[in-house]
């Protein structure tokens, strides 16, 4: 495993990490989750990502039970949660958003579900137009001073809101966001490469990037239709199916296949390794509904040295 610093912080995360969205508590029960987390940890993965909204808190319960059962030393891994969408179906106004009330309560609840004393990383899952940024920054600072959170960050915030959070933190001597959690993959590059570019230099922010396979699309599995047991057939994720699948996107995935063939690798490993070429990516968060997928995707590290300048140009042309 490779390890990378989370931006300018001293925290070293595994270059490949593992998240629970859609899978834990839905496609993946406790037995399978145990196998997945055990394999990941055994291969040096030291960051497990979660959120209050994932399967309405059940993903965190499953992860918490399994982590307790596996008895990994607490100092051998990092675990995250994210606050904003709420953990219950149809949340009341006090049960969602980034108010001090919800941020504090959501953290307490995540700690209980994950069965840990502190969250290593805690993210504001989206920006909240109904809460002053001052209130959220102060709440995160409180959680850090209470020892309940070690590093806080944002996820998919507009760049101006992140600048504002840093200004507030600097002027009030509060802890500032250390990392962003954006989508980044061969089909979705703009925000990480262009919009967020000033953040890396100005504040030394790191990124924990999500959907390296664009929900599986970049494995090529959707090239000839939607497999019955795949993510895009899951009830409740019809919106994802609509946004993920298009002729244009499938065309780009097809165009990448000859490049992967030439490298002697799979589309999935190529797509994951490509994310790691960006030095501002601190960790690529993998998703997997099966053990074989995780095993295969961890092999992306072997592809990284093969991605020279010429290969990168061919990849860029394929998805242009
Ligand atoms: P991916 O884009 O890698 O999609 C993972 C899914 O693709 C798997 O669950 C599986 O689905 C399929 N898959 C994975 N590997 C293979 C393979 N080798 N061959 C074929 N199919 C494969 O990542 P995610 O979208 O899951 O994102 C990773 C993590 O990022 C999440 O778990 C979550 O922690 C985080 N995240 C954060 C978000 C945010 O807003 N902050 C939003 C989304 C994710 P299938 O069931 O079809 O087999």
Automatic annotation (TrEMBL):
InterPro entries: K_chnl_volt-dep_bsu_KCNAB-rel, NAD(P)_OxRdtase_dom_sf, NADP_OxRdtase_dom. Keywords: Ion channel, Ion transport, NADP, Oxidoreductase, Transport. Belongs to the shaker potassium channel beta subunit family. Residues 16-318 form the NADP-dependent oxidoreductase domain. This is Potassium channel beta subunit family protein. It comes from Rhodanobacter terrae. The keyword Transport applies. The keyword Zinc does not apply. GO terms for biological process: monoatomic ion transmembrane transport. SUPFAM superfamilies: NAD(P)-linked oxidoreductase.
């Amino acid at each position: 495993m490779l390890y990378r610093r989370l931006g300018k912080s001293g925290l070293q995360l595994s270059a490949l990490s593992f998240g629970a969205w859609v899978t834990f508590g839905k496609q993946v029960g406790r037995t399978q989750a145990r196998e997945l987390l055990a394999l990941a940890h055994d291969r040096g993965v030291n960051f497990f990502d979660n959120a209050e909204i994932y399967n309405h808190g059940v993903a965190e319960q499953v992860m918490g039970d399994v982590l307790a059962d596996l008895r990994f030393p607490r100092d051998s891994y990092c675990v995250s949660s994210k606050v904003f969408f709420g953990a219950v179906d149809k949340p009341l106004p006090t049960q969602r958003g980034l108010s001090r009330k919800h941020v504090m309560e959501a953290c307490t609840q995540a700690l209980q579900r994950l069965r840990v004393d502190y969250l290593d990383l805690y993210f504001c899952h989206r920006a909240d137009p109904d809460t002053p940024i001052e209130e959220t920054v102060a709440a995160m600072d409180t959680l850090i001073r209470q020892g309940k959170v070690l590093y806080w960050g944002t996820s998919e915030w507009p760049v101006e809101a992140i600048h504002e959070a840093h200004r507030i933190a600097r002027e009030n001597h509060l802890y500032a966001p250390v990392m962003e959690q954006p989508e980044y993959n061969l089909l979705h590059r703009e925000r990480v490469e262009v919009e967020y570019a000033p953040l890396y230099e100005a504040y030394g922010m790191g990124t924990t990037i999500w959907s390296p396979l664009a929900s599986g699309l970049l494995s090529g599995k959707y090239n000839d239709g939607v497999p019955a047991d795949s993510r895009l057939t899951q009830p409740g994720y019809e919106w994802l199916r609509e946004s993920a699948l298009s002729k244009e996107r499938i065309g780009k995935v097809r165009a990448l296949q000859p490049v992967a063939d030439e490298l002697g690798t799979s589309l999935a490993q190529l797509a994951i390794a490509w994310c790691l070429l960006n030095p501002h990516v601190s960790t690529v968060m993998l998703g997997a509904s099966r053990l074989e997928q995780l095993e295969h995707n961890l092999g992306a590290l072997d592809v990284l040295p093969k991605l020279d300048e010429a290969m990168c140009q061919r990849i860029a042309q394929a998805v242009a």
